[in-house]
Structure formats: structure tokens, C-alpha cells
Predict the 3D structure of the following.
Amino acid sequence: MSQVKERKLTIARAMAEAIAIEMRTDDKVFVMGEDIGELGGVFGNTRGLYKEFGAERVRDTPISETAFIGAAVGAASDGMKPIVELMFVDFFGVCFDAIYNMMAKNTYFAGGNVTVPMVLMTSTGGGYSDAGQHSQCVHATFAHLPGMKVVAPSNAYDAKGMMIASIRDNNPVVFMFHKALQGMGWLGTEKDAIVHVPEEAYEVPLGKAAVVREGTDVTIVGITSGVHHGLKAARELEAQGVSAEVVDLRSLVPLDRDTVIESVKKTGRLIVVDEDYHSYGMTGEIIASVVEAGVALKAAPARVAYPDIPIPFTRPMEQWALPSPEKIVSAFNTMKEI
Amino acid sequence: MKPSQEQELWMYKHMLISRFFEETIEKIYMEGKSPAFNMANGPIPGEMHLSNGQEPCAVGVCAHLTAEDIVTHTHRPHHVAIAKGVDLKAMAAEIFGKKTGLSGGRGGHMHIFDPKVNFSCSGIIGQSIGPAAGAALSRVMQKKPGVAVAYLGEGAANQGAFHEGLNLAGVWKLPVVFIIEDNSWGISVSKRASTAVERNSDRAVAYGMPGEFIEGNDPIKIFEVVGKAIQRARDGGGPTLIEIETSRLAGHFMGDGEAYRPAGEKEALQKIDPIPLMQQRLAKEYGFSDADDAAIKAEARAIVDEAIQFARDSEYPAPEEAMEKVFV
Ligand SMILES: Cc1ncc(C[n+]2csc(CCOP(=O)(O)OP(=O)(O)O)c2C)c(N)n1
Ligand SMILES: [Mg+2]
């Protein structure tokens, strides 16, 4: 048997590699967005594409999100496979109609006779004092609205496989990448997100959660940064003699409720972690899904999410408000046993 | 309408305060960020967009404004905030995230709000425009004096909000002036690559207002052209669109490698740095001596130093204060 050489990539490089692979094999795939050309994307996820494919297929746009995301909808329904970047998800405010009223609904309005095979990739997350218009996750805002898949990887292996699956999907996919996991040094680097990535093309199915750590006493569910907080908390809990299972949702839409429910059936305890706002969000949705399934619980479920405030700039306030491994451990230690 | 000597000195002094402020912020921003550059670290974390080179756009406009006039700005706000009279100590403290900052540290460098002088800004491109139009409308409806000035970058003129906002101001003849700071770059994308016309000021015809382009990053020319537009707005003559050719002497933000800039561009821009040019002008027009220059520079430096010291010495807010001020 031949030894597989380890090839550790950042999420940024894994995304660029996935896009390049699909662009080589499918000339309908093209990329649009701000600073995604020569610069290679502010977050590095289109690096190298401009050089390989040129300005025709890797298009820097004006700062006109309504125009180029709307254009992607039109191009996608006319046989192309656009990948567009919304630089920070926070900017959806200037262009949401193109996203949720058209990209997400046109297929339905057309009775399935029109497809919109496009990928909208966008950065999420804070932790580096970029304040309230450049640090949000708004997972639930997108996941709440029907008609678009919403996925968000926590490591480079998933990023590549999910990007390839997103490009090949016949439906619109919102692909969220968390800035702190991107492997850009200037945003800090979560080392656990940098993992081995095979060179060849492969798909990670959209809508399938992963049990990233097995355990028996409590299930910690998260996505992107929440997964890494969950893994760190699990290691701390282990020192306390507690065996925590960690589930990476990977996809908000479709939502793999079964994997979560199976896990909580086993552990009887549930903590949900999300860097998105606390109320009306993913955390509430996961808890409701488990409760609705009638899973027997040993303790009241808990959530560790962002408080319902705009994200503050100053470090002490922001760090205090963010989810963390310590908050997860403390949530476990204060769980109300039933 | 030529500026008086006093106005020219005011302009020069505020250009100096702005430049010294940015140079100081630049240095402090790098504290704690080497050898590894990580935005989260140091006394000033987060993004930092410096205004070096764009000072003429600030002083040539704000020389015509009083505290009651409204200014809305962008993600690159320091120079205009300074010229508009924003409390520099409280602004510096805000940029450091301190309790004594304008918002107690909640907003930071891209969210400078000083209602005492009617200054605000937003980090979302194009979002200076609607609020300026609305503030101008409010003055008309309340029969209160004052005009509004919305600043934006040339890149923002391709945002929907620009076109909607200008049409609204045009059809309602609002007392508002739109100032485009054309530094020819939107991050790494040049104006030429992103804009279908050479001059955004030409777009004014579509919104029923005059459009002016000012070449040369020249504070005096800016003063003259903008002065007329502001007077027209005050007199009920409606809005104006003015595009100012200026230079971005720094990167888009701190940490920008700027590999996209053509070789020699920055050096050429340094040669027409508006600050020494203004000094030369003052010498020629008014016999402004080296000693005069040293004195005004010392004054500007002292103002900046005092503000920075105040920011450094101030306390951080308590973390739980994050929960306050969402509603009042
Ligand atoms: C709606 C929106 N899109 C994109 C961005 C990201 N962004 C921040 S600054 C910038 C460039 C702006 O260029 P310009 O308007 O010319 O202003 P300058 O930076 O040159 O001052 C971009 C694209 C944003 N903040 N808001
Ligand atoms: Mg610009």
C-alpha cells in the first residue's frame, strides 16, 4: 500500500483549489466579486484563479452587490454556474432581494422548470475587533428563508469537498466561511481548521452533519467556530471526567436533525453553540428539534450563543460576548438536571 | 469665493492635525502586531483605514460648515471628523476602545458618531448618502437652518444607494451636497476597471443637479467650488454632486501589501503631497515663514499628542457594558 502524503491546507486554499478543479472541468463555472481577481480575495479564497483562468472568468466587480448577485441569478438560469462572493456577510443588507427573493425562490416560482445553480460565498464571524458591521454570522437570517442551501465548513477537508458539492449542486448554495478559521495569519489562525486535504476532486455531501468527537455524557452541537470551541471544551471536560460528543452541523440547510437526535439519545444532554445571535436562531432550532423528537433528556438543554446586541468594537466587550470553550464548560457544569 | 488668510491657515492647521493624527495612529496600530501581523492584537485592534493624502477634501469642504451642519462619512473618516470639529480626545479614545470614547468603545474607528457637531459615519459602502438626504429633509421640514454633506469614495458611486439617494435629493431639491473623494482605488480595484464613465460628476445630470469635477487635490479650488454649492443649498437651490481628485497615500487598510498598485504610482503621489504644497502656497501668498510653519506644526502636534495621551490613559469599559445602549 502506498503511503498518502499529508498535505495540510488552510480553508482559504482548500476553497480556491476546489473552485480551480471545477473551473478546469466545467467552462460554465466562473467567479465574480470584489477584489477576487488579482488580489485573490480579501480572505484568500480565490488566490491563483485569476492567473490561471484570466479576467474573463475571474471577474472583479464594481462595489455593486445588487447588480452582480442579481447578474449571477440571471447567468445561472441561462446555463452558467457562477460563484459570487459577498465579501462580508454583513453586507447582505445592500443586496438581499437578489438573494432571498430571486436566487432562492425562482426555481419554485417556475415550478422547478428554472434552475439557479450558483454559489454565494461569504465570510462570517468576529473576534478581532472589526465591530458591528463586519463581524456577524447571521446564520439564522439566511437559514430561515426557504429556497437556498446554507453550508459552513469548520476545516479545510470539508471546505474543499463542500465547495465542490456546492458548485455541482443544481440549487443555489450559500457557502459561509468563518474568518478566524480561514488560515489568514492577519486574522489569527485556528490550527485545528488546517487539515490534510487530498489533491483529487471529492464531494462532502451537503446536509450531512459529522460527529467529530465521540462521547457519552453530553452532546455539543456547533458550526464553524462553534465546533472548535466545542472540541476545546470537550478536552477540558475530559479532564473533569466527562465524556463529550461533538457534532459539526456543517450545513444549516438542509439540516441533519437525525445525527443530532441520535447523539442526544445516547448522551441525554445537549449544549448548542453558535456565534450568531441568541434569539430566534440555530441554537433554538436544534433544541426544538430534539425536544420535538421526544428524546429523553437527563438535563435541560443549554445554549451558548452571541447575546442579542450589535457586536461591540472594543476588545473587552467583544471577547466577553463571544462564545468560548469556558462558557461551554460552565454551561455543562450548571445544567439543570431533570 | 477665495478663502481668507485666516481660513487658509485654518485649513492648513487641520490638514496637519489630521496627518499627525494618522501618522500617530499608524505607529500605535503596529504595536503588538509584530513579528506576526494579527489584526486582533495591540492597543488599536481591528481594521484601520487611514486618510493620508485626502486632507484637502476634508478642509476645503468643512471650512464652509458650522457645527449645526450635518456631515455623514465612510469607513475612512478621521480627516473629515477632525475638520468637522469632532472631539479629538473622545475620538482617539473611541479608536482605542476606551470608556471615554465617543460611544464608550462600542463603535470604533468605522463608527464615529459625534452628535454635538452632527458627524456620523458607516462602514457600509454607499450608506452615507441616504442619511444625509434625510437630515437635509428634516431641516427643511423643521424650518431649521443647516445643510447636509454626504461624503463617499469613488467606488461607492457604483452602489445602488448612491443612485437612489441622489435622485431623491434631486427630485425634492434638498439642501445637501455630495462629495466624492476620488482616490482612484476601491481596495484593489481601480476606478477605471469599475466605473463606466470617467467622471462620476457626469452622473449628476441623471439626477437633475449640477456636477463638478475638481482636479489636483487642491484645498483652495475645493474651497471655491464647494463654497458655491453649499451656498446654493443654503439658499434653497438644491443639491450638487462634486467629485474631488485626491490621493490615497496609504494602503486601503493597515496591512495592505498594495501589490496591485502600478510601480511608481505611490512615489508620484508623494511628490504632490498636499501638505508641503499648502505650506509652499502660504509662503508665497502670505510670506509664511519657516518659523511660522514650525509654530503651527507644534500646535497641531500638541493637539494630537494630548488626544492620544488621553486615549492611552483612559480606562477600558467593563465587559458587561456591552449589554447597555442597545435601547435607551
Ligand atoms: C456594501 C459594501 N460592500 C463592500 C464593502 C467592502 N469595502 C470596504 S471599503 C471598500 C472600497 C471602497 O472604495 P471607495 O468607496 O473608493 O472608498 P476608499 O476606500 O477608496 O476610501 C470596499 C469594497 C463594504 N464595506 N460595504
Ligand atoms: Mg476610493
